[in-house]
Amino acid sequence: MIKYRDVTGVLLHFSHEQIEALVEALSPEQRRFSAILGNTIKQPHEIWRGWVVDETDKGQWHNVRSYLQYLDLSQTDAGVAFGVATLQFAYRSRWELANVGLVFGTQESVMKQVDKRIRIGSIEYSNIQH
User: Fold this and answer.
1) Do 71 and 45 contact (CB within 8 A), yes or no?
2) Spatial separation of the C-alpha atoms in residues 18 and 37, rounded to whole Å
3) Number of structural domains, the chain?
4) What residues make up the domain containing 91?
5) Which has the closest alpha carbon to 121: 68, 65, 69?
6) End-to-end CA distance of the chain
7) Backbone phi, then psi, for 116, in 5-degree steps?
8) 0.85 exceeded by the pTM?
9) Which tops the pLDDT comparison, 58 or 122?
10) Does residue 78 register a pLDDT over 80?
């Protein structure tokens, strides 16, 4: 088990096996950029915290921390100019890795998705503020 203290001082728990399984579940196109996910924990642009319903857990509510890193892909061969890397940690008895994701597209379409699904609750950290 890996323990990592984030930029706000919160202790996160995850394993290499969890990360490998979650990355494997990404599409092949997304998997190309999976190395970015580690940097999202180390240097997030934003951290959000809120309550979400987990449909996979009988509709139970979970306290979730969401880490976001915005990606300028205009100088890559990705075929899109913008993306967001996300990691979500759910609190059970400690903050544990629950989900990873990469969203690509136009800035407008990506931000609509991120605002609806990831930027939930209150912002706990912004690299613009620090």
Assistant:
1) no
2) 13
3) 1
4) 2-126
5) 65
6) 30
7) -80, -40
8) yes
9) 122
10) no
Instruction: Report residue 93 CA to chain centroid gap.
Output: 20
State how far the Cα of 25 lies from the Cα of 95, in Å rounded to an integer. 21
Average pLDDT taken over every residue of the chain: 90
Distance CA 65, CA 81 (A): 26
Grouping H, G, I as helix, E, B as strand and the rest as coil, residue 126 is strand
Look up residue 120 and give its DSSP letter: -
Tokens of 76: 């890559």
Q: What is the DSSP string of 27-44?
A: -HHHHTTTTHHHHHHHS-
Say how far apart CA 45 and CA 60 lie, in whole Å.
28
Q: Please give the structure tokens belonging to residue 120.
A: 């939930």
Secondary structure element (H or E) that encloses residue 21, with its range: helix 16-24
30/72 Cα distance (integer angstroms): 15
87 token code pair:
């990691």
CB atoms inside a 10 Å sphere around CB 59 = 8
pLDDT in tens, 9-27: 999 999 989 988 988 998 8
Closest C-alpha to 71, from 55, 88, 61, 84 = 84
For 21, residues 6+ apart whose C-beta sits below 8 A from its C-beta are none
